[in-house]
Structures are given as C-alpha cells and as structure tokens.
Design goal:
Length: 274
C-alpha cells in the first residue's frame, strides 16, 4: 500500500507580476518598517477562509474555529506573528487576496494548475478526496457514471463544481457544503452532492442521513495561497508548516478534529488533482 507522510512539492507556475493594483491599494497596506513579509498589518498574519466549511472553518459561539483556523494560527505563531483569521465569500476569495484584503488564504483551497496561474501555493497541509454523497435511501446512484443528468449540489467556483459539470447541466449552487449536504435530506431537492470526503463523513457522524458512493474521485492537496510577489511570505509559511509536522503540532491538531493524521492517506490507484 502506497502511503505518503511527506509534502508534495507545490505546483510550479510561470512567475508573473499581479497587475491592476493601484497606488491606493498599496498605500493601504500597513507593512511597517523592515517587514520581510509585506503584511497587511505589521506583526500580524491575516488569513482568510469561507467560515462556512465545517469542520475546517465555521462559527461557534461567535468565534471562528475549525481545522483550517487552527492550522493558520499555528503557522502564524511559528512565524512569530499574531494570527488574525477572517472570512471571505469563497466565490470571490481569490480576487480578494489579489486585492490585498488579507495576506493569505488558509481555507482548504486545493492546488490546481489554473489557480496556480494567479497565486502561489505552499506545500500541501493535508490530503482530501472528492467524494459523491447521496441521500441514505438512494440506491439509484452507485457510481460516478450514474450522475449523468442528475441534479448535483456543489459550492460555486470549487473543484467540485468543475467535476459536476462533466456529468450534468442541472447544478444547484451553494455557498456552503454543509448546507448542500443538508439539502440532500429534503425529498426531491437534490440527487447528489460532491464535496470533500472528510466534510461528508463529519456530517454523517453528526447524524445526517446521507451516505458516500464508492471511493474518492480524486485526491486533492489543499495548501496556503499567497500573492505571486509575496515570495518571502511563502518561504516563511512553508518553514512554519514543516516545523509543525516535525514537532508534532500538526498531528495534534489533525487528531483533535479528525482522530487521524490528514497527511497519511492511501494514494494507491487514485488520481491526484492538479
């Protein structure tokens, strides 16, 4: 069985400067004297997630929490920075990063060649499978081929959106995978949802009457995204991730949320999304 507990090198993309950022946007960046990282606020790592992706990022008791949030917090602390997690709509999160609204995306953004044309990615900080989920009583969909012409729920602008488009034109869009999975339990609303395996399994363990179909369609590599010109910041983030893995912090956080290490994944015979 082929297992990996090491980082896959981030996708290399042709270096390019992000254009269209006017002097007004640059002046708004409080980088501070001598800052190597060109941060939005000196001494603070401001990182974004959707806040609607339980158990990775979500609101609980008026506070943003989840696996991604704790990983981002640990990265910031390893870099000697104060963590500042914020939320941003997933559909526009990349545009907001390029518009200098925050320093990084730490929100389960999978590495793809298309995304790597606009941003730079860190080493992956976990592996996740794209999985089909259906209502618990649905026996009509038993394989990916059965999705043909069915009504599928996905988050817009996600890798799952791209997958669904291969099989149907009848797609219902959501801003939260959790809401989409809940709609599976409403009779006649959806035939299937494509989302991350860990998100679906979390919903099942919480009592939602849904089930997975087959094995993951692919394995994707979520990573931290930064602007193309923030090379020093990327180096610092990669060093912080490596330190987390080596000192056991990563495994502690992963076990807290999933009772397993999300970097230990069986990749045998499964496509790596890129």
């Amino acid at each position: 069985m082929k297992k990996r507990n090491a980082f896959i090198t981030a996708i290399a993309a042709t270096a390019m400067l992000i254009t269209g950022c006017g002097s007004e946007e640059k002046d708004a960046r409080n980088t501070g004297a001598g800052s190597d990282y060109n941060l939005l606020k000196d001494g603070q790592l401001t990182f974004a997630s959707s806040g609607l992706y339980k158990p990775f990022s979500f609101q609980e008791g008026g506070k943003l929490t989840g696996f991604d949030v704790e990983i981002g917090t640990a990265i910031a602390e390893n870099m000697g920075l104060e963590p500042n997690p914020v939320t941003s709509p997933w559909e526009t999160i990349t545009q907001s990063l390029l518009g200098n609204k925050f320093d990084a995306i730490i929100g389960s953004m999978a590495i793809t060649a298309e995304r790597a044309e606009r941003v730079n990615f860190s080493d992956p900080y976990y592996y996740s499978g794209g999985m089909i989920f259906v209502p618990a009583g649905n026996d009509d969909i038993t394989s990916v081929e059965d999705l043909e012409g069915k009504r599928i729920g996905v988050v817009a602008q996600s890798t799952y959106d791209t997958a669904a488009q291969k099989y149907t034109d009848d797609i219902k869009y959501y801003n939260s995978d959790v809401v989409a999975l809940n709609d599976l339990t409403v009779k006649g609303r959806l035939d299937a949802v494509i989302t991350a395996d860990v998100v679906g399994f979390e919903a099942i363990s919480s009592g939602l009457e849904i089930k997975e179909v087959g094995k993951p369609l692919w394995i994707e590599q979520p990573a931290v995204a930064v602007r193309k010109d923030d090379k020093k910041l990327l180096e610092g983030i990669n060093e912080a991730i490596q330190e987390m893995v080596e000192d056991g912090t990563y495994e502690e956080i992963s076990n807290k949320w999933f009772e397993r290490n999300l970097l230990e994944v069986d990749l045998e015979g499964i496509e790596i999304l890129n």
